[in-house]
Amino acid sequence: MTAKSFHPPVRTLMGPGPSDVSPRVLEAMARPTIGHLDPAFVSMMDELKAMLQYAFQTRNELTMPVSAPGSAGMETCFVNLVEPGDKVIVCQNGVFGGRMKENVERCGATPIMVMDDWGKPVDPNKLEDALITHPDARTVAFVQAETSTGAQSDAQTLVKLAHDHDCLAIVDAVTSLGGSPLKVDAWEIDAVYSGSQKCLSCVPGIAPVSFGPRAVERIQNRKGKVQSWFMDMSLVMGYWGGGAKRAYHHTAPINTLYAFHEALLILQEEGLENAWARHAHNHLALRAGIEAMGLQFVVEEPYRLPQLNAIAVPAGVDETAVRAELLNRYNLEIGAGLGALAGKIWRIGLMGFASNQTNVLNCLGALEAVLSDMQAPIQPGTAIAAAKSVFGAG
């Protein structure tokens, strides 16, 4: 085999992630590589950490990017806060609650599952019942923005319930950070993790995490070592802690962190509340077009994520063929359903740099064209006008 330089096609990414990356972020990656202990790099790390605290809306000192994808952010939270023999109440309403369960088990702890239907938010009453039934539980874990379904749960209420029963709260904010309200300090979230490739519009490979005072205290009072050397916060903070002197822990992904710094700078320039409002407004326009076509959302309106839209596949339509046509004819990527929703939904992302008027209109036009060609039961010629009426009112 004779290998050649790889030149990917230009796509519009409107699936569940990764999302489109700003040209500014891509340009940042191409800057000269320097050492991970270089004083100039350490200065950049301090700026990145401050901007990440802004994105999370926290003053937590233990706020940093893990040098790995969002799933490693999840694992970082669990291996530091969960010990063998612990009971952890895990709320599952989609794929990623199931991954939390896996992490609990691999830490040698016992998961107590609180189950809700896919597409529904976590039910606070069910969580409260589980907390009462298991007074020896130490931790509650849930997904704020379930990427597999597009459902958003009430993080503030769920965290308060955990604290009322002397539990710490671990929150998955992979799809919510930068796209919809997330207030770590105001909601008193103990541990939270996210990913760089969703609403922050950075390249994949970075997992932002933040640990609050209760979580730090638990880490400091562990009975045994954290099972993962790489993700042990007591070691990593020797590198990511404040001040000019840093202890070597691992070789950080230098250029990827340049990109992440730029992505956070873009968010700061726009303003967090403005970013939340932009995602919400573009969702309303997409919703108008989708419903005008006669398609339906899976999640009830009060619980829908603006940045991740789960659309029911019409009867008789081959959802795989639709996605293939969108990719081949329009260079447009949307996502398939996972787990219990596989083959039943499309997931349309409006995340970060990809959340804009042009993408909304192009996606609606392409989807309408493909479905019309397949003689799907939709109302053609309606979607674009419906979306434009929302943008015109914005």
From TrEMBL:
Alphabetical list of SUPFAM superfamilies matching this protein: PLP-dependent transferases (SSF53383)
Lineage, uppermost ranks: Bacteria, Pseudomonadati, Pseudomonadota, Gammaproteobacteria, Thiotrichales
Keywords (A to Z) from UniProt: Aminotransferase, Pyridoxal phosphate, Transferase
Cofactor(s) listed in the protein's UniProt record: pyridoxal 5'-phosphate
Keyword Transferase annotated: yes
Sequence ranges assigned to domain Aminotransferase class V in this UniProt record: 35-338
Pfam families: Aminotran_5
Native source species: Candidatus Thiothrix phosphatis
Family under the similarity heading: Belongs to the class-V pyridoxal-phosphate-dependent aminotransferase family.
Keyword GTP-binding on entry: no
Protein name: Alanine--glyoxylate aminotransferase family protein
Gene3D superfamilies given in the database record: Aspartate Aminotransferase, domain 1, Type I PLP-dependent aspartate aminotransferase-like (Major domain)
Matching PROSITE patterns: AA_TRANSFER_CLASS_5 (PS00595)
One GO MF term: transaminase activity
Domain of life: Bacteria
